[in-house]
Amino acid sequence: MDVFVGVLNYAVFFAITAGIFALLCLGLNIQWGYTGLFNIGIAGFYAIGAYTSALISGPPPSPMDWRVVGGFQLPWMVGFISAAAVSGFIAFLIGIPTLRLKEDYLAIATIGIAEVIRLVLKNESWLTNSVWGIKHIPSPFYAPIQKRISLFLETNPHLPLWLQTFLANGYNWFYLGLVIFILGVIYWISERIIRSPWGRVLRAIREDEMAVSIYGKNVFWYKMQSLVIGAMIMGAAGSLYAHYTRFIDATSFEPFFGTFLIWVMLIVGGSGNNKGAILGGFLIWGIWAGTEFLTSQWGLSGVRAASLRIICVGIILELILLIRPQGILGEEKVVSRILIRKKKK
């Protein structure tokens, strides 16, 4: 029973992390899957959201910190909304000079911005506490939930050890519910907007923006809206990550985890399909976690273990591209409910 509880607790941790990655995939799917915006700076928006939420809702700097700003200790929801808003604003600033140019320039700009953000996080100690990071970031409703759990365990000391261990991990179950709820809400909103006339314009821009402009649509502003909305979702994911781990530093947002792995998830699950984005997030993170287990069983560690895990992900990506280039689920060819009803008739 103890082993089962341990596996269950790990499954909750896995699901929370995979849900946050799935949220990043949904943001990228709006930008790339539906609009064709080549964003390679996901880690930048992800980090902006995490640090914004941590600075707004986190504790003030301690005497040992280099950081001199932040620590307003506002409610988690304020930090969450601010994370999305600041990420969207940065995306807006990036989009002004780049979205009128060809797609390659957006890729170059987002790579550059993500690298600038990483260097700022690493070196500007007055703002981010440099490599020491921001500690003791409060999790939403952590104190009251843990207080109730502790009180219940104290008043019931004769419970089996496995049940005490299970209940002691109760907050993670709450946080999993919060992540799934937010993921579900953003998925529902994404589905509604992509099946609306606005969403169909995005798909048309992806296919032929010249034809869309001939019909009188402002291609630039549609692209801007897509870039900003996707970045806001990425910022929201960063907030969830910061308040779950309760500690962030520059290494938390390396390009491999913050950008490359998200692209792999979307490609494997199915670009242009919100269900595929979520599936890819859970599937690839499951494979990544599974390879960690395998490398530990084989006695590998350090550079060898990391290299083997990256190779495994690369092989899976190559197989998907060769066998099913559209991804596991693939893009929905018809998203208009009116057309679906007509086809059924």
The H/E string reads HHHHHEHHHHHEHHHH
pLDDT < 50 stretches: none
Major β-sheet annotation: 2 strands, antiparallel
- What proportion strand? under 5%
Query: Main sheet: which strands, in order across?
Result: 1-2
The percent of residues in helical segments reads over 70%
- Count of helices? 14
Kindly report how far apart the N and C termini lie.
54 Å
Annotation keywords:
two-stranded antiparallel ribbon, mainly alpha, 14 helices, 345 residues
Structure in words:
It is a single chain. This protein is an all-alpha fold and 345 residues long. The protein has one domain (2-252). It is 74% helix and 1% strand. The protein has 14 helices and 2 strands. Helix 1 packs parallel to helix 7 (161-168) and helix 2 (42-57) packs across helix 10 (219-245). The longest helix is centred in the first third of the chain and has 32 residues, at 2-33. It is globular, with a radius of gyration of 21 Å.
In short:
The chain is mainly α and 345 residues long. The protein is built from 14 helices and two strands, in the order αααααβαααααβαααα. It has a two-stranded antiparallel ribbon with strand order 1-2.
Write the layout of secondary structure elements.
Blueprint: H1 2-33, H2 42-57, H3 76-98, H4 103-123, H5 125-128, E1 134-135, H6 142-155, H7 161-168, H8 170-194, H9 197-214, H10 219-245, E2 247-248, H11 255-269, H12 274-297, H13 302-323, H14 337-344
Antiparallel strand pairs: 1-2
Helix pairs in contact: 1-7, 1-8, 1-10, 1-11, 1-12, 2-3, 2-4, 2-10, 2-11, 3-10, 9-10, 11-12, 12-13
